[in-house]
Amino acid sequence: MKRNIRVTMVSLAVVLLVGIGLYFWVFDPEQREEDIVEYTETVTQSAQGQKIYTASEEKSVDLAEDHAQTGEPQPEDHIETDELAPGDHSKADKPTAEEQQRQNSDIEGQSQLTEEAILIFAGDIYLSSYVQNNYDSNGIEGVVAETLLTEMQQADITIANQEFPISSGGTKVAGKQFNFRVDPTYTKMLTEMGIDVVGLANNHALDYGTEALTDTFTALETAGIDYVGAGADQARAMQPSIIEARQRRFGFLAASRVIPEVDWNVENRQPGILCTYDSALLCQAIEEAKKQCDFLTVYVHWGIEKSNTPEEYQRQLAYQYIDAGADLVIGAHPHVLQGIEYYNDKPIVYSLGNYIFSQEIISTVLLRVRVTLQNEVVLKIIPAYASGALTQEMDTDAAAELFLQIEDLSFDVMVDADGTVRPK
Q: How far apart (Å, rounded) are the C-alpha atoms in residues 141 and 194?
């Protein structure tokens, strides 16, 4: 009998608690609103439970896969056991028609965004001893700060000018003031930065002779990084890198108008680099490459070191490249920033300066290029500097000052407060 009494009392207590709960839910608007908000968020998250990788995220996925293949440690696996499979709403009630319409609109917006490709361009890169020491101590974030690193890694395509051979061999070229060479073990720095293509047409590619240049080809190929502007023969040096992104084909070429010896020219010695003292050969390469791609960038080594003003020949060559079919011309070599110009509505960026080099860089930029399906181009400057061999983003005041400087150096160009470049 005592057992029956206890059961009865427990049953009454349960009924009483449930009744109180229902009372407060019905007559307490704030609590009810919180519950509805929580429900709505659950439905929205569930409907978007399928992971849609945009092209800008593919590079991060590739990096994770690389870690898995090499056996390197990677961040803790992120497994969300409550994540719903596509179309599975078993963990939440079916969304209302209005909610479903809003979700479909969000997905459509994401699809439209994928039509635009993001290209990131960095200037001169040399992995000096200062840079290597930072990497050995702090990894890649000791070389490039997180904000800039994210831009490089998440872009559809990232390209830079590589101012050094990758080799532990070769013979140092006599008579040069600076001879650069980087051990192949540091090739992984380029990969970790998210670099897809490097330009090799410059005045340091053969600092340790043809042996080191050949080693460079091997190291880059092993790392899965394309190279342009140099090769074992003239045909390879003229060959574009073609990369598919956002349902289009993007092409890249490189050439140099600065070499210390005439036999560095691939026409005179092989392997060698593609030169553009005369524009004919590069323009031929441009015409051929444009047949293979939808958007073509030419990365050219030219100008006078430490000069912020492009030489007249730089402007004339750039016009010829665009007339031949280039959609974008990017310059390197002066080690400082030069201005921007539009010719036939196509942008020319005369020099991006040093991006990773020595301990201190007063000012540099990452160039963010947004390309629409119609090949409309929007340039955005991401201002940076290096201190203690760490390249990092400028603060707001320094950035505003740099934008004004670039406007002054440019030809009928405006730079908005957010770094967006527009022709006047």
A: 13
